Amino acid sequence: MATPPSAAKFAGLFRDEGVTVVEVGDWEHHNRNHKGPWGPVHGVMIHHTVTSGSARTVAICRDGYSSLPGPLCHGVITKDGRVHLVGYGRANHAGLGDDDVLRAVMDEKTLPADNETSTDGNRHFYGFECENLGDGKDPWPAAQLLAIEKAAAALCRYHGWGAGSVIGHLEWQPGKVDPRGFSMQTMRGRIAARLDGNQPEEDDVPLSTDDVKKLATTDNVFASPDGESDAKGNKFWTLESYQRYGYLMNRDTQGLVKALVAKVDAQKPVELTDTQLASLAAQVAAHPSLAEQIAEKVAAKIAERIAE
Length: 308
Prior knowledge:
- By secondary structure, this protein is of the alpha/beta class.
- The chain has 2 domains: 7-212, Lysozyme-like, CATH 3.40.80.10; 222-307, no CATH class.
- 42% of the residues lie in helices and 11% in strands.
- The chain has 10 helices and 10 strands.
- 28% of the residues are buried.
């Protein structure tokens, strides 16, 4: 028999596993215990929310709906990898499911196909709702997947369970599809590796496309060129701004080269005075990137003249 820990211990398990925990309101006393028993617990169930926006998602999972009162889980795992604790005790998340699946979870055996709705899952499972539209297209950021791994592993570690005690809603109740967008088998492999002490260092977790986009648009990290303020007084640029700056500089440089070549083509050969040479040298010095391009153009012109 697995007895749930105290609420304080529950939160501490996640922090000990390296999870960022957000405690929402009176989550320790927010539950559906008046509607039925909670425990013994035998496993962890993962869901997706079919929502977007972290604040809205957390509020829905805490409060629920008129037809399905909250809490709708114990923890909400948002895309940034934080675990928001919204309830503790019985929660409306698992519903009725297959008793054969429950026995397989308890014995940590291969899960059978779920084809019955005869057993109260709200009594026997911890539940985590994960912020995602559930359409198979909404990305799962690396930070969020890592938080799912850590949160599930924390509870397995406390109860002495293996990764086989972690299932998806789709493996419990016929007709459910959540979580959609990653494989529960793969997630169980990650949890098993963490429990065995073989999890990768966090620095080795690959960045998702979502992570890269966030990095490119994050401000106040990279100093502006030469540390100078722009017209708005901003001394920091995003990577996106650096990319745009590089493109514009390259475009302007190409324009200067073309204009210079056009002027040279339009001129008759003349002997340059020392003063003129010094002036030309000063202009090139002001735009160092022009030197190589000018040399190439001059070499090409010389080659053309020699060939005539």
